[in-house]
Amino acid sequence: MENELSWFDRVITPKTKAYKDFAKEVENTSPEIFYRDGERKFSEQEKKFMQIHKSTANKIIQGSAYTVNTIFNVDTDTSDKTNYKSSAEVVRFINKQKTDGKILIIQDNTAFRELTINNEVAKQKYLSDSWAKELEVRTDLSFGMNASEIDERQADHYRRYEIEVKKLDIEINPAIDEGNGVFESMMPFDGDENVPEFDDFYIEENIEGNLTPATNLSEGWIWRDYDDGSVH
Fold first, then answer.
1. In this predicted model, what pLDDT tens digit does every residue of 155-193 receive, in sequence order?
2. What secondary structure does DSSP assign to 165-186, as a single string?
């Protein structure tokens, strides 16, 4: 839990040149470059500057319709919040983002709802749904476009969504074909020489130890002791 900012940090520090330079870097540099894909190590002073900057940004959120929280590294809590006035701005931003190793949290500050995008499936589904809404209620997102063009955008993202879903299914169930009832082994065999023989699943010593030779039986016959005391 972060410590509360002191009066000096809230009032004096934001007026210093060091903080202004840091804030300018945050606001004018793409998150990927600024955070170095989650690998950047911050000094104690920079951590304090970041806390002050986030505190200021949180006050702005109330006047913003949408906020996108980009989490680059969950372990180090490396994240960046960007405020947007309209859903169109959010859609354009999300469309440009790569989802590899990154989490995008879209906050609708007017409806008090939150949507998390942590893979390409969720991203394409969000974009497809957003364009579908344009067919019902137009926003700046579809400015200058006709219904056919909007429909093409929606269909394109939905196709991408379906492709990513299939990829995800392959990764989750690579060895099962439920439709045909086929279950492939997770250990491939290279020819007959690697296929275990039936006898390989048994230990010969243990079997012979349970066999009791007997007399007066035809050749090849043996006695077997069973748990109930019977013999065969």
1. 999 999 999 999 887 444 444 343 333 333 333 334 444
2. HHHHHHHHSTTEETTTTEE--S
> What is residue 211's predicted lDDT score, i.e. its pLDDT?
52
Strand segments (E) across 109-154: 113-117
Q: Write a three-state SS string for 73-101.
A: ECCCCEEEEEEECCHHHHHHHHHHCCCCC
204's enclosing H/E stretch is helix 204-209
- For 77-125, write each residue's pLDDT tens digit: 678 888 898 999 999 999 999 888 889 999 988 777 899 999 999 999 9
Distance CA 2, CA 211 (A): 73
Measured CA to CA, the distance from residue 6 to residue 11 in angstroms comes to 9
Compute φ and ψ for 147, nearest 5 degrees: -60, -35
Residue 184 main-chain phi, psi, to 5 deg: -80, 145
pTM above 0.70, yes or no: no
CA nearest 101: which of 84, 78, 83? 78
